[in-house]
Amino acid sequence: MRVPRHEWGMRWWLAPGLFVSALSLACGGGTPTGRDGAATTSYPSASATPQVTVTPALATTPAPSPAPATSPSPEAAVCEARPGGPGAPVRDGNGPYYHQVWLAHELPGAARAGAGTMVLDHASVPDGVAIPGGATYVYYVNGATGGIDVARVDGDAVTPLGPVTIDGVRNPAGIVDPDATPLPAGGVRLAYLAGLGPPLPSRRGWTMCIADGADGLAFATLGPAITFDRETTDPSLVRLADGTWLMAASQGRTTILARSADGLRFEAGETLPFGGVPELADAGGGKVRLYVCTNGIESYLSGDNGRSWQREGVVATAPPPQRIICDPSRVAGTSLFFYKTAN
């Protein structure tokens, strides 16, 4: 029997061995959107109102101030890299082992992607980044191991390089949903959901962590960005034109925004009702674009740092015979556009 999405996290919290169910939730399993705008088990259709005014979010907990080194906060403990080992295939029928990563190009002058090509099998939740003057990488959840892997992008092909390293730990345990952002001074900031696996005594809520890396392959943990009191996955970061940072994260069928002055500690704010599994991107000219999963992948544009949004339209639909398309990633400074499919 297929387990409804909202129950997967509960089953994992209540039964320590059900890590697979939580990973499927974090990787967007069970939230399919059909091709040609026909949703199977979709998010609600985008609002027909051109301009959307967002409302404050409730039940969130900003990340606390740093605690003494001798007594780390529960959130900081969740962000500590733990050895994960080689892992095993995530065989949940809705999980990342049965997903594929596709690469397309966003069409010039339009927030719409052209025809894509499948570049990674047994992979999910892709997010790409182009390091200024360096390589272009795509990070993803490896459905064969359950960890975050990275691949180098060469044109329209990718070459898997293996698991990421955080604080010297290769393939750390319990982290999913990678989001990579180029840093103004160089290097990559990696945001991710941490703490999946058997429940830890220190765990409290759903924590998004941040780590920086100069080469995009090895990272050092900076700590927790924010902790949410309800199921929250799929963080996405963007640095706004005024130098502040915006985070979007998925709460089922909605997207929650959070803001930060330094890109390290965030406070939750508005809730957007028109889709989940978000991706934020600098749209130029002081504007920011938001991609969400609803009936396909749709985009919204904001000219006021994400205070209000205008719907643009459908960016991509599931390529036949696939029935599910989600987890968009627009690679800043390029036309590259990654997404996840499943059937």
Task: Please outline the helices and strands.
Blueprint: H1 5-14, H2 19-26, E1 51-53, E2 55-56, E3 60-62, H3 74-79, E4 99-105, E5 117-121, E6 123-130, E7 136-142, E8 148-154, E9 157-163, E10 165-166, E11 169-170, E12 175-182, E13 188-194, E14 206-213, E15 218-228, E16 233-239, E17 245-251, E18 254-260, E19 267-272, E20 276-284, E21 287-294, E22 296-302, E23 308-316, E24 324-330, E25 336-342
Parallel strand pairs: 10-15
Antiparallel strand pairs: 1-23, 2-19, 3-15, 4-5, 4-25, 6-7, 7-8, 8-9, 10-11, 12-13, 13-14, 14-15, 16-17, 17-18, 18-19, 20-21, 21-22, 22-23, 24-25
Relevant terms:
mainly beta; Tachylectin-2, Chain A; disordered N terminus; 343 residues; 5-stranded antiparallel sheet; single chain
Give an overview in words.
The structure is a single chain. This protein is mainly β. The protein has one domain: Tachylectin-2, Chain A (5 Propeller). It contains 3 helices and 25 strands. The protein has helices at 5-14, 19-26, 74-79, and strands at residues 51-53, 55-56, 60-62, 99-105, 117-121, 123-130, 136-142, 148-154, 157-163, 165-166, 169-170, 175-182, 188-194, 206-213, 218-228, 233-239, 245-251, 254-260, 267-272, 276-284, 287-294, 296-302, 308-316, 324-330, 336-342. The two termini are 17 Å apart. Mean pLDDT is 82; it is low at 1-22 and 30-70.
